[in-house]
Specification:
The protein is an alpha/beta fold and 271 residues long. The chain has a domain of 187 residues: Rossmann fold. Helix content is 43%, strand content 26%. The protein is built from 9 helices and 7 strands, in the order ααβαβαββαβααβααβ. The protein has a 7-stranded mixed β-sheet with strand order 3-2-1-4-5-7-6, sandwiched between helices. Strand 2, helix 4 and strand 3 form a beta-alpha-beta unit. Helix 5 crosses helix 7. The structure holds S-adenosylmethionine. S-adenosylmethionine binds next to helix 3.
């Protein structure tokens, strides 16, 4: 299995946590990425649902955004195995005035303490690609969702991630980025099988391609987050990392960089 930084946050240095927090918060401000979330929230008619659980909530970007929706009157619980990210989530929620509408907890998504049949919606937003055993978390989602409730699994099909700068080692760097950013590059292709095994029936699949030419906040932040982490972890040679980032930045400014990744939302219900 690849060395996924998201599996190592409990032992990560504070500089790494800061970088991770910035990456997650940047995604929450990026219109193109937020639009992907809004698509599945609309598909499940989130405003009509009373109780929502987000497993692997990180800094709470999704949980906070649901709690802050003008039409949402229910309650949101977000949980994550990183105590530092949960603390950050609580601080952001208070600062945004939604501290009373969303509760954050520390727990492992693969073995939660949540009660069975308790939630109208259970959301796993860019979680399964980081787990040693994605099926365990999907099974937990199926267990804690109410009969008639929904389970949403949203994630990147990171095997489809492409970044082209024109550097001769684009493929080497791309592989290093994949290795530090997600343990399971193909997991969204296994979701029909995993969901069937966990007694979930797929009701809808939504698919989008994030694509950018030249400057892109989303892919720029991705490269600036993961290339230094790949170097730090020994996944990528330091000189190559610096050289490639120079090429990446020049191609972004010059308008010649290309980047894309497929994202999928599976919307399912317990059998
Ligand atoms: C890419 S982040 C996504 C965070 C959030 N859902 C979002 O999209 O902003 C992946 C999250 O999964 C969490 N995580 C990784 N392994 C976990 C586990 N076994 N149980 C719970 N959370 C886990 C990480 O701490 C991190 O917050």
């Amino acid at each position: 299995m690849a060395m996924d930084i998201w599996q190592q946050l409990q032992s990560a240095e504070s500089s790494t946590i800061d970088r991770i927090v910035e990456r997650l918060e940047m995604r929450g401000r990026d219109d193109t990425f937020v639009a992907l979330t809004d698509r599945y929230l609309d598909l499940v008619d989130i405003d009509s649902l009373g109780t929502v659980l987000e497993l692997g909530c990180g800094t709470g970007v999704i949980s906070r955004s649901i709690a802050a929706r003008p039409g949402y009157t229910g309650s949101v619980v977000g949980s994550d195995y990183s105590a530092q990210l949960v603390e950050a989530a609580q601080q952001f929620a208070r600062a945004e005035g939604v501290g009373d509408l969303v509760r954050f907890e520390v727990e492992d998504a693969q073995a939660t303490r949540q009660p069975s049949n308790a939630y109208d919606a259970v959301i796993l937003h860019t979680l399964v690609s980081h787990l040693p055993e994605p099926a365990l978390a999907v099974g937990e989602a199926a267990r804690v969702a109410k009969p008639g409730g929904v389970v949403v699994v949203f994630d990147g099909d990171y095997a489809s991630l492409t970044i082209r700068t024109g550097h001769p080692d684009d493929e080497t760097v791309l592989q290093a980025i994949r290795n530090v950013s997600s343990a399971n590059h193909h997991v969204m292709r296994s979701m029909p099988e995993i969901m069937k095994q966990q007694s979930l029936s797929i009701k809808d699949i939504d698919a989008s391609v994030l694509v950018a030419a030249g400057e892109s906040p989303f892919f720029g932040s991705l490269a600036r987050t993961y290339v230094p982490l790949a170097v730090k972890s020994g996944e990528l040679d330091e000189d190559l990392g610096h050289d490639w980032m120079d090429t990446f930045e020049a191609a972004a400014v010059g308008g010649t960089a290309f980047a894309s990744c497929n994202y999928l939302s599976y919307i399912a219900q317990p059998d």
